[in-house]
Every structure is written in C-alpha cells, then in structure tokens.
Design goal:
Elements (H helix, E strand, L loop, with lengths): L23 H4 L8 H8 L4 H10 L12 H9 L4
C-alpha cells in the first residue's frame, strides 16, 4: 500500500512497489476473501521486506503488507518479531 514518498525518503521503496500497479481492493479484500493473490504479488516484489517493516513499525492493522495478512503480522508481534 502506498504512502507519499516525498514526505519521507525512507519510503522510496514504494516508487517501484508492485502494489502501485494494483488497486487497493486487491490488498484490502472483503472479510473472508482470499489474500492469496495479493501475497503472491508481494512475494515477487523487491520492496516486500521494507513494506513489512513499515507495516510492523506503524502498526498497520488492515490489509496485506509485505506479503502478510493482519493475522500473520499480529502473530509476528506476539512472538516478539515485530
């Protein structure tokens, strides 16, 4: 998911992020919908790690970020990774 990179050079990874080529509904599916396709796109993206780090640092609670769903990111936080 993209944020204005002009405000923060640390977000430059978003300039080439594959999610820029898909609509937000792809990464924020309706409850109960599959996140498989979004995760596949994330896993092919060179900005995946930076995206995941951003989501964990900013407590993003919704959508697929860095190839992980909300529940998967919460699991990382609980285990002390995030």
């Amino acid at each position: 998911m993209l944020i204005n990179t002009a405000d923060d050079p640390a977000l430059a990874w978003q300039e080439t992020a594959l999610c820029a080529q898909a609509g937000p509904e792809f990464f924020f599916p309706a409850p109960g919908s599959s996140t498989r396709e979004a995760k596949q796109l994330c896993n092919a993206c060179e900005g995946r790690v930076a995206c995941l780090e951003y989501a964990l640092a900013n407590d993003e609670r919704f959508g697929v970020w860095g190839g992980l769903s909300e529940k998967e990111r919460e699991r990382l936080r609980r285990t002390g990774r995030g």
